[in-house]
Design goal:
It comes from Paenibacillus donghaensis. It holds the Pfam family Response_reg. By secondary structure, the chain is of the alpha/beta class. It contains 8 helices and 12 strands. It is elongated. The two termini are 31 Å apart.
């Protein structure tokens, strides 16, 4: 049996048990919850490698469970939704979902997503309670929190404090999609954003400094209709 333990919160019993069966075939340990309250209770009792949350559950929904989990853990979270237009809500208001699946889905596709999230999580060393590395190293780009410096292909790049914080925040969570509101709240420490232009201006300035071609960015990519993500090849 693997040391990987997965928590599934899904009010549809058939889907819940099907997910459990397929993940147990991968030798993962699996706990299940039929609602958000039960999921939070289980999460408080055990350490999990990954959490799967249905967005629509009675009582405490998946968005609220995600928010509460994120207050104490950076465990990977996969959201399940029955509606395509809820994707922005999942990635924005949940403040930290790592990926999503839209119903109806193939169980094999969910298993593949789980494996991909676990690989990313383990490779980056972001397991629960593990301290954040002072240096983030990608092919062509190094971000050092100790010296508050950024080097591109060995040459130091001058960034403002907010540009550095924004870059570090995104780079420490590669491939995770963030809305403008989420970035603003995280970097500018505000619960309300009056103008998306603040984030857009800083993204534009960062691209001019770290990208070979700002009009075709490699590191800071736009996810149309949602926001931005950092994509870099670890070294």
């Amino acid at each position: 049996m693997s040391d990987v333990r997965v928590l599934i919160a899904e009010d549809d019993r058939e889907i819940r048990e099907l997910l459990r069966a397929y993940l147990e075939r991968e030798l993962y340990q699996v706990d299940t919850a039929a609602d958000g309250e039960e999921a939070l209770r289980l999460f408080g009792q055990r350490s999990y490698s990954l959490v799967i949350l249905d967005i629509m559950m009675p009582g405490v929904d998946g968005i609220e469970v995600c928010r509460r989990v994120r207050n104490s853990s950076n465990v990977p979270i996969l959201m399940l939704t029955a509606k395509d237009h809820e994707v922005e809500k999942i990635l924005g208001l949940s403040m930290g979902a790592d990926d999503y699946m839209i119903k109806p889905f193939s169980i094999n596709e969910v298993v593949a997503k789980v494996k991909a999230l676990l690989r990313r999580f383990m490779v980056l060393g972001n397991e629960q309670n593990q301290p954040e590395s002072p240096q983030l190293v990608f092919k062509g780009l190094t971000i050092d929190s100790r010296s508050y410096s950024v080097h591109k292909n060995g040459a130091e790049i001058a960034l403002t404090a907010k540009e550095f914080e924004l870059l570090k925040f995104m780079a420490s969570r590669p491939e995770q999609v963030f809305t403008k509101t989420q970035l603003f709240r995280s970097i500018w420490d505000s619960s309300y954003i009056k103008d998306d232009n603040t984030v857009m201006v800083h993204i534009r300035k960062l691209r001019k400094k770290i990208e070979d071609d700002p009009s075709d960015p490699h590191f800071i990519q736009t996810v149309w209709g949602i926001g931005y993500r950092f994509s870099g090849e670890p070294e």
